[in-house]
Write a structure and sequence with these properties.
Layout lengths: L21 E4 L16 E5 L3 E6 L5 E5 L5 E4 L3 E4 L7 E6 L12 E5 L1
Antiparallel strand pairs: 1-2, 2-3, 3-6, 4-5, 4-7, 7-8
Length: about 110
């Protein structure tokens, strides 16, 4: 069994979200050839009020703190308020449904 601290796969991909921009998160890596066929898991929009997380219909998104000690399932649009921003590492993941077996799943980490 691997040590707990080595369970992350480092990825060189980063994104910067500017005010009023919307960014889509996908379960699959970017591909020029089939991007039009891929359905996003959720949309992120940064506003003066905070970060709007809008899951697509049928997506199962979970918001966690870095230690995974606090989690929240997001099934409808949700706002992380600007006044709650404290530079903590949070992560969004496409959690597996009950009964589904997965080896792993993508996680998008960010500071809020």
């Amino acid at each position: 069994e691997f040590p707990q601290e080595n369970h992350w796969i480092k990825c060189p991909e980063h994104a910067v979200l500017n005010m009023s921009d919307t960014f889509a998160l996908y379960n699959e890596p970017y591909s020029y050839f089939d991007m039009e066929d891929l359905k996003p898991l959720c949309q992120l929009t940064l506003t003066t009020q905070g970060l709007q997380i809008s899951p697509e219909s049928g997506s199962h998104i979970e918001l966690q703190n870095k230690e995974a000690s606090t989690t929240a399932k997001i099934i409808s649009s949700r706002m992380l308020k600007a006044e709650q921003k404290k530079q903590k590492t949070l992560q969004l993941c496409n959690f597996p449904l009950a009964g589904q077996q997965t080896i792993g799943y993508p996680v998008w980490r960010f500071k809020w």
